[in-house]
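hiii, so i know i said id send this last week but things got crazy w the move. better late than never?? heres the sequnce for the chain we talked about at the cafe, plus the structure i predicted for it. fair warning i was half asleep when i ran it
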Amino acid sequence: MLIVGAVVACTPHPRLGTVIYQHVQVDLATCKTAPAPAATTAVAPTVRVTKNSQSIVFEGRVVLTIHENHEGFPAGSPGPIELEGVSPDGEWILYAIDPQGSASLAADGLALRAIRATGGRSYAVAFGLMHAGYRAWCGGRLVMTTGGDRIAVHAKRLIVTGPPSWKASPLVRDAAVSFGSLACDGDGVVAQEQPNSTDPNFFHTHWSLVRVGFDGSVTRLTRPPKTYTDESPRVVGGILYFVRSRRGNGTLYALQNGKVVGPLLSLGYSLGYYGYQDWQYSVRRSARAPRRG
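okay and structure toks below
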């Protein structure tokens, strides 16, 4: 095993591509490292704030303006706009409003909304935690983990929605389980799943990974050992990558042809937040790399 600085430890595995984590690029075939290339910066919306209003501005156009009352509300009422991304086609902007700038209220979920990049009507999408890992675009559809309460394993549901109507439909009707982070996988998503619980301990999660089709079918993909949890899925070139962690110490694995491959990289320690972990890694693979299945 090769130690790569103080960031990761690597075990060579051919044909699994290159991982970028904490500004380090690691070739999984050789464990050679290099500084990560500069990220491509896409045009993104911004929030323009004045004394009595705030506006979403995109490509020089004011998309939405909200008037704010600051009398007795230091952060304003209704509250600051939180930008939550742009649709892959650049046609829609996702945003939420943090009520009166309350970090506590935001931690238990916000109402996600969508508006065309050219302005017009604002649509309600769903209520949930605004974690980046809780949303994935899949062929023009948005899949989202919904549900309030900052405890990641408590009453979180999967819905699918999208433009132009933004009418949401449940993907799975099973109150006995909660879902977490997800990634698009063709005609479905790979998502974290575990029994529903109100346990707030950051390290008492026992996520496994399932594939949920848009037809509602559920297929179990991983079964982590007791006291371990599988998190932060990515599907790249037909291979599923994920982080298997124990008490906040994470290691990258892959699922290829139905078999778990790894350990690949040790990613160090992350505290997370009430059972949610966002291991911010990315994977690049050659276009000629074989696909799973």
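btw Helices lie at 103-107. thought thatd interest u
miss u guys!!
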